[in-house]
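Task card 7
Instruction: Convert sequence to structure tokens.
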Amino acid sequence: YCLGTDLTRGARYSFVYFPAVIVLVAAALAVSNRNPSTANPSDNSSPRRAKTIALVWLMGFLSSITVVSNLGYQKYYRPDLLVPIIEQKSSVPILIATTHNTLVQTGEMMGLAWEFQQKADQKLSSVNPQFILAHQDQIQCQQTNCPAAITLKQTVAELSSTLDLWLVNFNATVEELPNCSAEDSVNNLITVDGYQAQVYHCLSPKDSAVSYQPLAVSRQPSAYFIQ
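Output:
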């Protein structure tokens, strides 16, 4: 904290040394409980030791509850906040695109896919999006001919049906997309924990001459890794 470093992103990796800490605490409690003080026969510390052990057990129990309830050691990105926004704004098939550089982007998309799957399993939603992970060597590309942007443009040009294109953490400059238009809204750029998204409404070539009309259509989930 003195260096101004965000430590909250790495807290979930503390499990590496947690077992050793737990063993040390358990050993200290065991020794304290087995060796009551003999220097003073009237020593009344046994109740205090029992309270200490009970307090440690209670702290461990409460800590476990926070973890299993997804209240502790969360990742810095929150798909559970973005998915409801996507469901609210889109009523046509959904294509989610991101730039792919490392496994970090894979994890971010898996988080979204998992959230959609959980909602589908609970019969809370029928949205089954498709995913594109467009690979590029650099993390951020600000040129006009970024590889990921070229891949996205080629993919959109081959669309055969109307859909909503969501650019999620798409770290490449996107110019014009064929048959697609960005949502005309001051809130088009959506930002939640760990995600930045922008939605485009895309028409199939045969429908490009008509206005955008949302239709409730579901898709089977799938993902494309494009090198």
